[in-house]
Amino acid sequence: MSDSIKHECGIALIRLRKPISYYAEKYGTPMYGINKLFLLMQKQHNRGQDGAGVASIKINAGPGMEYISRFRSVKTRAIDSIFGKIGKEYQHLKQNNPEEAQDINWIWNNMPFLGDVYLGHLRYGTHGVNSVDNCHPMVRENNWRSRSLAVAGNFNMTNVDEQFQKLVELGQHPKHKTDTTTVLEKIGHFLDEENQALFGYYKHDHTNVEITSLIEENLDLQRVLKRACKDFDGGYAMAGLTGYGASFVVRDPNGIRPAYYYVDDEVVVIASEKPAIKTAFDIDYSQIKEITPGHALIVDKAGNPSMKEVVEPREKLSCSFERIYFSRGNDPEIYEERKNMGKLLCPQILEAIDYNLKDTVFSYIPNTAESSWLGMMKGIEQYLRKYRKQAILNQNLTEEELDEILQFKPRAEKLVIKDAKLRTFITDNDHRDDLVTHVYDTTYEVVKKGVDTVVVLDDSIVRGTTLEKSIIKMLDKLEPKKIIIVSCAPQIRYPDCYGIDMSRMKEFVAFRALLGLLSDRGLSNKIDDVYDKCMAAVGTPAFQQTNFVQELYDMFTHYELADKVAEIVKAPEVNAEVEVIYQTIEDLHLACPNHKGDWYFTGNYPTPGGTGVVNRAFMNFMENKVGRAY
User: Fold this and answer.
1) Cα–Cα dist 421/66, whole Å
2) Closest of 479, 486, 464, 477 to residue 438, by C-alpha
3) Is the model's pLDDT at 295 over the cut of 60?
4) CA distance 366 to 514
């Protein structure tokens, strides 16, 4: 994606199902679980570079022993920083106690982070200050292990205000009005209630010490999560560790946020992406399963996993952006889907170049678009194969003409190269823009000046700023006849509120194109009409039932908006003709049949809160407010 946006977080959970001595004997180190957690997080580092955090639980730790540990970091290489610290503690422990360190159980008792259950989190901050305090896991500690809780997740809630008020009505005094705080405190509240109910049930026939064990053996986490999650509105994959060792990952009822798991007799593993599990544990993809939407994978204190319904599942609308861009492309399903995206764009591309392959150069930006580019080139080759066949069947060709047809190949070049980040110390905006132009560089002397059309494939076009300020200007210096920018994603028209940092309407180039078309055709009054409808609906059910902004987009075709985007991203000094091609919604669904979450393209949100967010975001635009709409 040439326009940088912040997006999904990542989670990793490991439950060791054997004593620590088992892993030390079989794998040569008591650090087996920690090493695997490091791998899981490294293989998902694409999901969060603003910070990282880890937590662990020692099951059956004795009184006076630290049973819950947590490390967090916002350093540039946060994962390395955290695990470097853990590794140093282990080395110091062995060096300072060489005799005792021969006993694995002694190491387990004396090294704080070494445990039985591990939770890791990678953070992409969608808002707020990037401080350690904002890094997951968040911890709610108590002297009763069964009341202690650590939570980390990939989620955004659209109804934070409502959830905050419910906590107040429960008698709590939350310190912050954030979705992370409300999630932690809501689950924590019902965990407390479950503890209290069990204590009341057992108190007449057992001592307090006996009751502690009975609670840990009988606590119903499914019931806790059902009560806590019943009115959450958002996309979420939330992972939690209890102080006594039970753990869970719960997924939203539409399956918006991803979560996968693997189980064998040694471990239970959960992560946001399949390839991380595949690589860390060297297993077949067929062994990795998906957590069912609306369900929680709960692992009890004994290490037994079970899938339990928490919220009634709804239509599965997994985030399609995971497939287009966010998730790593070495997942075989995603790899094929991305190639299909590129292939399905070929009819539009061929029409745009007037089927003139001889004078067309195909390229891509950024590197994550390479898989889609391969699919696009495969589609071009398929067209060319049909063309060759038809030419041979229908014409009397000379040997020279036949050789030319058979030997011709589409022209594929690496035209766009991203240099290392340029730090701009000049405060003058005009000069800063000039430097931004050079963030990307190009391969020279491969384009026929004034003759060739350059086709550049991108993952998606969000703001259009990089195209306007850098890429198109740079490509224009090659002096092509025409520049065609192709987006694997459809037009991003609406804000996202389930995990991606795309919440302000005016930042979307498609929305700016909409405003431009309304102005060009003397229809700007329609904007005020929609604003009035939003205002009239505030406080009524209609505000969360009807996306009023859709009626503005419905006034224009997909292609009219694309043409207007091309006008916007073509700077006045660019000489080449510029065209922008977008993936259609229909073809996106063909490419990704099991991931049809498309609200940022269509405005069809899977939850009422999402519809409310788009209306609020539009109102914020009209009122010149810069804050998020949720």
Assistant:
1) 43
2) 477
3) yes
4) 26
